[in-house]
Every structure is written in structure tokens, then in C-alpha cells.
Amino acid sequence: MFALETSLPELLVIGTVLYVGILILMRLMPRRTGAEISLMDLIWVLLITEAASHSMGDYTSLTDGIILIVIYMGWDYLINILKQNIPAFERILSSPPLQVIRDGEMLLRNMRKEYLSKDELLSNLREHGIDDIKKVKKAFVESEGKITAITYDDKQFKEAPATKK
Predict the structure, then answer these.
(1) Where does 98-157 sit in CATH, by number?
(2) pLDDT in tens, 54-70
């Protein structure tokens, strides 16, 4: 039950290949695929669930599952450190925001990149209390798939009063 069924180097390779493989595949998907959860959180949940299920059923060794979970935790920790300290690494792993509305007009080309329909966009705007697309100065699909909008009413875009000389 506690003896290793698979060698430690083999578990390290399996864990690494699974982690990096899922990370790459998920990075290639549209941002809105997992809109309610960040990419790294989704990978984390998938891999931990996979490792735990093997240790509960497919493996006869609980230790194999625990070692895989520790490997995934190590990769998650390392990637978080790299993202924090190396800006280029953050750009590789996180998609930049994609603008889908500019000055009250939908950017259809960008919407197609995200497989975002007009109805879905308008529905999301309504959820945020925006009933007219003409009120939107800018809207973006963020890296984690959420749609954010800045309206003309937002104070941060109001022009500062002219100063008298």
C-alpha cells in the first residue's frame, strides 16, 4: 500500500509531462473556455484530482499518488515564482486582455478570436448593469476569460478641468 509502485524518476517525468502538456494545451484554448476559473487554478484542480483518483483506485500504492501531488505542487509553486519574478514568463503563460468593444462599437474580428457572439457579449454587459453598447468606451476579454467594461460614465475617463493660467 505504501511501497512505490512506479520509480521516483518515472513519477517525476509523468508529473512534469502532464503538468506542462496540460498547461500548453490550455494556453492554446480561447480565454473564455474556463471563464470562471484562472488557467493555473484549472490545471491545478485537474492534476490534483487525477493524482488523487489514481491513489484511491488505479494504483495499489498510495505513495505514488502522494508523490504525484507533491510534484504538481512543486511545479505550481515554481511557475508562480517564475511568473512573479520574470515578466517574460508571465507574458508566455497569461494572455493579454483582448479588446472587444472600442468607443461603443464591437470589434468583430477580436470577438471571433474568442468565439464570442454578439448575444453573449450583450448578455455579459447587461449582467454588469450596462444596457446600451454605446455607453461602453472599452471592453475586454481578460486573460482568465472574464469580460470587463469601462463606460463613458466611469470617472477615470472623465477629462480633468482645464486649468487657468
Answers:
(1) 3.30.240.20
(2) 555 555 667 777 888 88
